[in-house]
């Protein structure tokens, strides 16, 4: 069995993300260990701060040197990047999904390794950090399930498995020769789910990046706030990130799997008709 056949098996789907997770965790631990030796606490003289909490990172002005700034263009960039990626997804589903998935797993694991090191060293404190790490783990699991449904949805057109080949040979307009109008509507919902999935990955990566970079900045001697922290400050919202990303994942999963399409096309019209009949004519 060659390497390409191995990559197509289910074992590869599990072991490769696990390898990326362990690699990211180890590199995160090493990176933060090196940074711990290079820097000492910039706020050590402030007795009010024994260790860094999530609240300190979200509101750095209450602890150390910081200037508020935000970048409204970053959200537009994320939306455009996710939209373009969704378009490329039509031409090579597996490659695009794997690229985003492995990059997300690696980035999140890298910062998680750093968070764990800081918690063990007493640099970070508070249950919010543990909650953040737990949410990342749950995110990985749900993301893995959504990725599987993108390859083999619960409900899909008969020719869905050949859609990538059709698009590569005949272009996007060529789908009309092999799929009905109902099938095209299914594709629209499916692509919307993929778009939401990409946005969820982008947002969580940017949020974790802010917490990682800003946390190290507060502990360091640097006087200037990192550029990356300023650009990602928009995503420094603990509960909003958890709720918003969870909703994105939930919606993306049901859109990608085809369950929402089946409800929208078949179940919802029947329920609406029943409701209107009951409203107009009584039960």
From TrEMBL:
It comes from the Bacteria. Keywords: Membrane, Transmembrane, Transmembrane helix. The chain crosses the membrane at residues 14-35, 74-93, 99-120, 127-147, 187-217, 238-256. The keyword Membrane applies. The keyword Transmembrane helix applies. This is Uncharacterized protein.
């Amino acid at each position: 069995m060659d390497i390409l056949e191995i990559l197509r098996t289910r074992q590869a789907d599990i072991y490769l993300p696990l390898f990326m997770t362990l690699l990211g965790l180890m590199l995160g631990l090493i990176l933060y260990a090196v940074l711990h030796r290079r820097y000492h606490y910039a706020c050590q003289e402030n007795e009010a701060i024994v260790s860094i909490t999530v609240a300190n990172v979200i509101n750095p002005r209450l602890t150390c040197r910081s200037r508020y700034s935000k970048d409204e263009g970053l959200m537009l960039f994320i939306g455009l990047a996710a939209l373009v990626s969704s378009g490329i997804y039509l031409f090579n589903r597996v490659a695009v999904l794997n690229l985003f998935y492995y990059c997300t797993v690696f980035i999140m694991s890298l910062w998680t390794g750093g968070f764990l090191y800081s918690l063990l060293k007493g640099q970070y404190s508070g249950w919010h950090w543990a909650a953040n790490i737990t949410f990342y783990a749950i995110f990985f699991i749900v993301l893995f399930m959504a990725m599987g449904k993108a390859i083999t949805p619960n409900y899909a057109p008969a020719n869905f498995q050949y859609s990538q080949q059709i698009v590569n040979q005949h272009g996007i307009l060529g789908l009309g020769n092999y799929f009905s109008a109902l099938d095209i509507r299914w594709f629209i919902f499916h692509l919307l789910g993929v778009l939401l999935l990409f946005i969820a990955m982008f947002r969580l990566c940017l949020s974790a990046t802010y917490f990682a970079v800003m946390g190290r900045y507060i502990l360091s001697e640097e006087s200037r706030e990192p550029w990356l922290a300023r650009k990602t400050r928009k995503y420094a919202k603990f509960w909003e990130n958890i709720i918003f990303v969870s909703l994105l994942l939930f919606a993306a999963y049901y859109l990608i799997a085809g369950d929402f399409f089946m409800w929208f096309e078949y179940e919802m019209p029947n329920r609406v008709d029943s409701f209107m009949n009951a409203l107009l004519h009584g039960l």
